[in-house]
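Entry for the shared binder. Reason: the reviewer on the internal report wants the predicted structure included alongside the sequence.
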Amino acid sequence: MEEDWLAAGGDGGVEPRRSLNLRQIEVFRAIMLAGSVSGAGRMLHVSQPAISRMLALTEDRLGFKLFERQRTRLLPTPEARRLFAEVEGLYRGVERVNDLARNLARSGAGSLRIATSASYGERLVPMALQGLVQRHPGLHLSCRNVTYDELAARFLTGEADVAITMQAPDHPNLKATELGRDPLVCLLPATHPLALRTVVRPQDLREVSWTGYPTAAPLGRVLVDWMGEALAASAAIEVHSPVTAIAFAQHALGAALVVQWSLPAVLPPGMVLRPLEPAASVGVWAVTSRLEPMSVMARRFLGAVGTVLRRTPTHRI
């Protein structure tokens, strides 16, 4: 049915040469948001060739180029950026109408959509939201745990206003600001051989079972820098989240290298923490869209996250 979808964007010989229809505007906006034809296709659930054909039709109708091709990416021309500003104004107007309708249904309450790494969804995000919810009792919250690979899609599909994550995303339409640092520590049962040590060094992990992460993951890259690639690849167990690593350590499946904010406020009985030497840490990053102004509620939330990071110690070791 993509032929029908593409045909819906044709001019049918009835529109002036430089007039765009809604389908062409939708495709143009999706390419601007995604930064590529393939990304726009995923947003609109249409194949890449169909998007390419629609873009060609649109540029032909306008009589000027909207994008310069650079390898696999499309760089918007000055004309495209000016056109996009008007298109976004149109979409923001529609969104304001929808937001108002939703807020009226909630007696005027605001909304906030948060995406977060699972580690920061355990304590950091709830602590930051506690005071915000108290000050805005009608606030409607949506909070989802996402992986690093899923982050950009949450913004591009309008499912996130702000995100808290371990790594700044590499996307032209997303902005990242480091709010603080989160140190890595070693969590292990009190009966574990490393529990006798005051610190844990890379060489200490050579002879024991421990839990690590894929080298492409944010924590995996930190561990490669800390212990070297060969030792980082020697983990007996590989997981994708510190939350899982903590559960494994509690069941005596080995030492777990985790960020402190992924730990519960009170350690489970029989578990101990040891600092790493040399120290290692990851950033706590706030991610927002470059294409839309940040909402007042999102700004307040990020302010609350910064306050928690400055005032609240994670754990004393």
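Summary line for the report: The chain has twelve helices and eleven strands.
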